[in-house]
Hints:
Blueprint (H helix, E strand, L loop, with lengths): L22 E10 L7 E3 L3 H7 L7 H14 L5 H11 L5 E5 L5 E3 L5 E5 L7 H4 L1 H32 L3 H4 L4 E3 L8 H12 L8 H11 L13 H5 L6 H12 L5 E5 L5 H12 L1 H7 L2 E5 L7 H14 L1 E3 L5 E3 L3 E5 L5 H13 L7 E5 L1 H4 L9 E10 L4 E3 L17 E6 L2 E6 L11 E5 L2 E2 L5 H18 L1
Parallel strand pairs: 6-12, 7-8, 8-11, 11-12
Antiparallel strand pairs: 1-5, 1-13, 2-4, 3-5, 3-17, 9-10, 13-14, 15-16, 17-18
Helix pairs in contact: 1-8, 5-7, 5-14, 5-16, 7-8, 11-12, 11-13
InterPro entries: Aldolase_TIM (IPR013785), DUF5598 (IPR041529), N/Namide_PRibTrfase (IPR041525), Nicotinamide_PRibTrfase (IPR016471), Nicotinate_pribotase-like_C (IPR036068)
Family: Belongs to the NAPRTase family.
Catalytic activity: beta-nicotinamide D-ribonucleotide + diphosphate = 5-phospho-alpha-D-ribose 1-diphosphate + nicotinamide + H(+)
Amino acid sequence: MTNPLLATDSYKQSHFRQYPPEARQISAYVEARTNPFSDDVLFFGLQAYLRKALQRPISDKDIERAAQICSAHGVPFNREGWQQIVDDHAGLLPLEIKALPEGSLVPSGVPLVQLENTDDRMPWLTTWVETALLRAVWYPSTVATMSFKCKQVIYRGLLATSEEPDQQIPFKLHDFGARGVSSSESAALGGMAHLVNFAGTDTMEALEAASEYYDAEVAGFSIPAAEHSTMTSWGPERETAAYANVLDQFARKDKLVAVVSDSYDIHNAVRNIWCGTLKDQVLASGATVVIRPDSGSPVETPLKVLETLWQSYGGTENAKGARLLNPAVRVIQGDGMTLATIEQLVAEMVRKRWSLDNIAFGMGGGLLQHVNRDTMRFAMKANAMKTEDGQWKDVFKMPVSDPNKASKAGRQAVVFQNGQLVARKFDEVDPADDQLKVVYRDGKLHESSSFDDVRARANDGLKQSLSSG
């Protein structure tokens, strides 16, 4: 979709006629309400929306096309309002948007974004953008939070079993999710959200997104790797030759190459090929060969592979009392990985005295696709209305049938209280203490974050969460 006037729900097209006649400005906020998935949300993605959507002026052509579609669709169209935006605002939306710094770890129930219209003729505009704005925030923030929760689990395992947890953690969870999402844009936004926490990805659209929206050079990295088609095309009788070819092509000193090894029998491949026929070639190459199981139990299979590799290649016991394989071989487990199975596998590795240096994890659809707006109960709600006399009036909902859906009344601020971010009414705090800062006003970006900035905040959140937990 390229027409911004259609980037909303149908019923929004009629709302310009529904606000009270005295309305001049509408204020609204975005939050992740209290939810069963996570007590905190890793806020991310707003800047991509600001740069991609809100800096593109709407045009007379957009208005004409939207008018045609709305007429045929059976809903009103606010031609006068949109024409005012084109004529008086150069096609850029007269909104003020405040937000917390992206990469912040924010308690659920605390506003992430606060916005209002800046042209008194357009109180309808604030909530008109709800569909696109909420979508721009909930999806990357939920993926970033999922990735962050996995990082917490893995980092704790590294602290228990690794001598260099900070050096190891960036490449411990690899994104395999590009093919499992609903669109290229989802791959870009979700993949970029994962890269806030880690540096390993096979979702290349995420690299372009991080560069375009957050000025990153190259936000993620990968290595040469085999897939089943390149292995099975050799046939079962030439399985060893298929693996040997990968070594010939890519195994170089101090380089990594990953080889999926379960096309027929993962345990035979590890025991008789990687630890037998090809062992000398692996060792002579000076490379690290990463064995990838891709079927079976996501916990028991990689553990059995590790044991077989240990029996053949050996290794050392590190200062944490954990076994560290010969650097010639490692394992990556990408099949069946979810937050729950990562927790199980990490726990078993710690229990069995395996260093997490030996393994990397991969996630696909579980990372980028198995989330929705309700995962963290994201919502955008109107909270105040400015009337013709210049006074702000609280706006809120409080359904007796579901108190959990009650919304905040009054324009919001977010302040630190005892080191914790909390929501307060804007009129009740010193504006200097408000952590919601203007990021967009009337078509111009007022604050921006680099990808390094976002990553640094997220890493601070990781350390704080572990120290408090």
